[in-house]
From TrEMBL:
Molecular function in Gene Ontology: kinase activity
Source superkingdom: Bacteria
EC number assigned by the record: 2.7.2.3
Protein name, per record: Phosphoglycerate kinase
Originating organism: Nocardioides luteus
Family of the protein in this entry: Belongs to the phosphoglycerate kinase family.
Chief location category: cytoplasm
Sites where the protein binds substrate: 23-25, 38, 61-64, 120, 157
Catalytic activity: (2R)-3-phosphoglycerate + ATP = (2R)-3-phospho-glyceroyl phosphate + ADP
Intracellular or extracellular location(s): Cytoplasm
Positions with a binding annotation for ATP: 207, 298, 329, 355-358
Subunit field text: Monomer.
Gene from which the chain derives: pgk
Pfam families for this protein: PGK
CDD domains per UniProt: Phosphoglycerate_kinase
């Protein structure tokens, strides 16, 4: 059983250097943060440690640099925003384990916070070679006396700052990770019923494991987004130029048959918003789902389907939603996603927005986080948990956490 944050703090963190792995992978336009949701979600754990007198050393990644410094992926703008949210300046190290990191961490007073530069600027972070990751983890661990895993969006990755460093220091689960895991357990082990799952996004292949694992747990599955066209094709319908995964048609057919056998309702759209080309809002029009023109492509569920999906969510006590219903970034293709989001705000029970594009969509469409029961910070991690997979960054805390290691 892993330590939680409260238990670690009770051991006494005042004056101790605590390395916190946060998920600060936010979208940027130049140096402007366009959605600070992940930073805001990381603040409570960092603040709790700082208030307890710890010297907090935050490590995180941004984007997918190639294992070397790249100014486009610098965490400098994040350090500024994190400081604003904490109400105190955050010291920023211009490297991860080099001279700047050593100097910045060494200069921290009790209760102060530092952010190291993008951890993925070091190739050891994501290396497939155990020894390379271990070497980098050793350098990170040398900067701290304890480790807190609070980056839920990366706990499905076996990476140095997520997995390997936990083996080297007294380690604990941060409040964000604890909350995320508790919510996922409610979705998979003890869901209050009726239980409805809404799945969208571009590819059905990304959601196969979730469909397979939740098909027997939920009463209804509502399907939208680009993945819906593989389902429609499986039913023999023309899908035109819409996104299609031909190699998944037989799998999808199997799910449809299995759902019918066990009495689970899979809802597919009856109408679709199509266009002549991707993002061509001027050509947007509504057609029946079984009559998509051969030269068109579907970019959203239609208004009839949006109303039906909203109705299907009425009375649900548990809802998990992952993936937008259409290309929500453009108004002509956003109404399906808006209808699902609006329906979730009225749920008298647990409504979970499964991170990634779904979280971005609700914010872009003008909804506030507190209108939903829980907004996950980790789409990929949530999906892997719901597939029944082990999350390495969580499992390692159970395996190796030293109790009483701070002394």
């Amino acid at each position: 059983m892993s330590l939680n944050l409260t238990q670690l703090i009770e051991q006494g963190v005042a004056g101790k250097r605590v390395l916190v792995r946060s998920d600060l992978n936010v979208p940027l336009e130049g140096t402007t943060i366009t959605d600070d949701g992940r930073i805001r979600a990381s603040v409570p754990t960092i603040k709790k440690l700082a208030d307890a007198g710890a010297k907090v050393v935050v490590v995180a990644h941004l984007g997918r640099p190639k294992g070397e410094p790249d100014p486009a992926y610098s965490l400098a703008p994040v350090a500024t925003r994190l400081g604003e949210l904490l109400g105190a300046e955050v010291a920023f190290a211009t490297d991860t384990v080099g001279d700047s990191a050593t100097s910045v961490v060494g200069g921290l007073a009790d209760g102060q916070v530092a952010l190291l530069e993008n951890v993925r600027f070091n190739a050891g972070e994501t290396s497939k070679e155990d020894i390379e990751r271990a070497n980098f983890a050793n350098e990170l661990a040398a900067l701290a006396d304890a480790f807190v895993s609070d980056g839920f969006g990366v706990v499905h990755r076996k990476q140095a700052s997520v997995y390997d460093v936990a083996k080297l220091l007294p380690s604990a689960e941060g409040d964000l990770v604890s909350t995320e895991i508790d919510v996922l357990k409610r979705l998979t082990e003890t869901p209050e019923r009726p239980y409805v799952v809404v799945l969208g996004g571009s590819k059905v292949s990304d959601k196969l494991g979730v469909i397979d694992n939740l098909l027997g747990k939920a009463e209804k599955l509502l399907i939208g987004g680009g993945m819906v066209f593989t389902f429609l094709k499986a039913q023999g319908y023309e899908v035109g130029e819409s996104l299609l995964e031909e190699d998944q048609i037989l799998t999808v057919l199997g799910y449809l048959e299995r759902a019918e056998e066990i009495g689970v309702e899979i809802l597919l759209p009856t109408d679709v918003v199509v266009a002549d080309s991707f993002g061509d809002e001027e050509s947007a029009r509504v057609v029946p789902a079984n009559a998509i023109p051969a030269e068109s492509l579907g970019l959203d569920i239609g208004p009839e389907s949006a109303a039906a999906y909203a109705a299907a969510l009425e009375g649900a006590k548990t809802v998990f939603w992952n993936g937008p219903m259409g290309v929500f970034e453009q108004p002509a293709f956003a109404e399906g996603t808006r209808a699902v989001a609006q329906a979730l705000t009225t749920i008298d029970g647990l409504s979970v927005v499964g991170g990634g594009d779904s979280a971005a969509a609700i914010r872009q469409l003008g909804f506030s986080d507190d209108q939903f029961g829980h907004i996950s910070t980790g789409g990929g991690a949530s999906l892997e948990y719901l597939e029944g997979k082990t999350l390495p960054g969580v499992a390692v805390l159970d395996e190796v956490t030293p109790i009483g290691g701070l002394g």
